[in-house]
Specification:
Blueprint: E1 2-3, E2 7-11, E3 26-29, E4 36-37, E5 46-54, E6 61-71, E7 74-83, E8 88-97, E9 100-109, E10 118-125, E11 128-133, E12 136-142, E13 151-157, E14 161-164, E15 167-170, E16 173-174, E17 177-180, E18 186-190, E19 196-203, E20 206-207, H1 217-221, H2 226-237, E21 244-248, E22 254-259, E23 262-267, E24 271-279, E25 286-294, E26 310-311, E27 316-319, E28 325-328, E29 334-335, E30 341-346, E31 352-357, E32 361-365, E33 372-378, E34 381-384, E35 387-390, E36 402-407, E37 412-413, E38 415-416, E39 419-420, E40 431-434, E41 443-446, H3 457-467, E42 474-478, E43 481-483, E44 487-490, E45 495-499, E46 505-509, E47 523-524, E48 537-540, E49 545-548, E50 551-554, E51 569-572, E52 576-580, E53 583-585, E54 591-593, E55 595-600, E56 603-606, E57 608-613, E58 615-621, E59 624-628, E60 639-643, E61 652-656, E62 659-663, E63 677-680, E64 691-694, E65 697-698, E66 707-708, E67 729-732, E68 751-752, H4 755-761, H5 765-768
Parallel strand pairs: 2-4, 18-25, 27-40, 41-42, 42-45, 43-46, 44-48, 45-49, 46-50, 48-51, 49-52, 50-53, 51-54, 52-55, 53-56, 54-57, 55-58, 56-59, 57-60, 58-61, 59-62, 60-63, 61-64, 62-65, 63-66, 64-67, 67-68
Antiparallel strand pairs: 1-9, 2-13, 3-14, 5-10, 5-14, 5-15, 6-7, 6-13, 7-8, 8-9, 10-11, 11-12, 16-20, 17-19, 19-23, 21-24, 22-23, 24-25, 26-28, 28-35, 29-37, 30-31, 30-36, 32-33, 33-47, 34-35, 36-40, 38-39
Length: 780
Amino acid sequence: MLRSTAMLALVCPALISFAAQASDAVTRIEADAPVRVTGTAAPADSYVEARFRPLAPGRDGKLYVVGRYQDEKNWYGAGVAFQGTTGRVQVEVVRMQDGQLTRLKQFGRAGASDGRFNTVRLEMAGANLAAYLNGERVTIAVDGALPLPGRYGVFAQGAAFEVGTPVAGDAADKPARLALARAPQRVQLSVGDAAVSLPVSALGSYRLPDAAAAPVRLATRSFITQGAIQDAAAAATGAQPFRFTAVAADPALLRVQVADGAVSLAPVAAGTTTVMLTSVDDPNVLSVIDVQVAAASAPAPASYKLAGAVTPAIGERDVPADTPLRLHFDAAPTLGMSGGAIRVYRKRDGALVDTVRAGGESDQLGYEGQPFRRALRLQPIAIEAREAIVHLHSAKLRPGEEYIVTVDDGVFSGTLGGQPFAGIAKGQGWAFRTKATLPRGARFVVDDDGKADFRTVQGALNHVMQHTARTAPVTVEIRNGRYQEQLYLRGKDNVTLRGQSRDGVVIDAQNGDGLNPGSGTAQEARSPGITGGRALFLIEDADLVTLDTLTIRNSVLRSAPNGGQAETVFFNSEGRLVAKNASFFSEQDTIQVRGYAWFYRTLVAGNVDFIWGNNHAALFEESEIRTVGDSANSQGGGYVLQARTVGANDRGFLFLNSRLTHGPGPTGNDVPAGATWLARSAGYATAWDHIAFIDCRMGPHIAPGGWAGNGVAKQPAPNPLAASATAGWREAGSMDLDGRPLDLSRRANGRVLTPDEAKAAYTTRAAFFAGFPGGWNPRP
């Protein structure tokens, strides 16, 4: 806990309705000169928001909006802590109680510390507290210590800020959001490019439907981000798009226009600038787009031959439309960051179809026209041995079309045919034609280089989502190869991904919380920003999905800037997931599941909370649960689980006849003896810590105390605090890896079950999964 000596500014006019507009006026608040203005109190369930910016960019500082203010020593706050040396911000929910400031929740964010305006909101609904930044819900906390109504205002520490007049309103009224739709607030262009028109999400405030009314099915089937709920609720309540303006900070670099709900950006000269989007009616509703305009870097004249050096081959026919582009260099090339691009044109009319830039991209996974797609940041260009592999944006190419590829000078450094690579011009003839017909049936083949229906797993998933009936069984057979891609499946049941061999089929990509924050969800077309999340494979609103005989690896390091939490699979559905004879590798949060899941003879590897989720029932049977060395902490052993089971009567997580092993992590270090805990709790009264190990073998890396909680290892108490035969932290028949019974006398918090209690905890698969509507009895 932190004791604060910072200034406090309270501005407390009467409660303002959701339709009220913020004042355009701003006030300078000095760090050492507290200012207070008293006023009437707001209800306990309300929001408070204010627009602000730091007046000393690059300096550490904090700004919170404050609610339920009783006195200087008791209030809630939500806001940001600026880290001047790193340029990052931390979005926080805090509680000041009896003069002690406690961070209830915090969430890292990149950028936004350069002196631009931001809007922060604290939403208080009962014990639920949410922090919003520029209309986006960033993090939530649960705390009931201060339930009373109170005044509201702002709180600052460490630096001077410019702050608009705080406004408050009903907690049920959600904030307006202004941002590029399904895209990051960062745009890359090149001098000579035509103007690009980017759709903008600009929907006004709205109220969520009454809980007693007909539920929004979208919200009940999967976790939907604020943007997606916003559009669903807006459709139900009649909220309308609002007017906004767009202004370039440096018009000498960029021409900007607004028309038909989109912003048009035309590059003029090389350089870096920003574009400010602002609501015409409410200055609290704003966002900033970072724009980088690169100098023109057209291909230079070159005499090297492309025959045999590119895939698809020059003039190749019947090319699967999801085929990545490959360039075969003499030796391993390097990827330039000059701002250059790979471009694909439609031959019949010269239309630009896709642009991929060396500095990174965003994509919308899914098929064109899909109501909800997964938007995320990624690096679409990979270097593998002497090949450069370029993944085009999802679903850009069409059947039966001929395309021409160009590559700017500077995108790659290397030699081709003994000559320095200087790009590929249209005249060099890298052209190919896609297959004219789509595959049919219930079985599809993916192969990265052999005869197949698709070249990528996502290409096959796009097809089955678009062209097969929801309930029709479909099998995607994946031939041996390394598939460097992120994946997304939504709205399709009975899908099986079956690999040719467990170690031969490797789906491998880098994604993490620093790159795509949050667990992730799909977005409607007008949803703002990017919320695709940190998982490699996001599955939503789907039932009976099977992952069989393959490996999925999220290869981002926990120690990397874009690392941290990084799922291989996030099963974000109330349906059923099966994983058998499969392997899943990451470091933190490897597997996140909702609904019902069965893992059979499967390996799950990680080191921090690497199995978790808001689930009903997950059974890990005859599987290996491997704790690996932590790239961020060489002496760390982490936690195997963090259960957040949603119901007191749900089964939670059960491990049966499985092995808890350890091994080297991605940076080579192993796990120290006794350093790994079986589980820790999230500490939520609304989530249940239902975990059981029955007849499992455990390596020496497992801590003798077993369970971290109720003060052990400085972790919160589990829910329930005292385990029973069917609830809480439990184990029975635990052995070492050689099959000798373990001494469990030093176990803390958990319950050691008797043989009869162990039988009550598990009898059959059908009994374990009886909570699924209609029952479920999965079989190998």
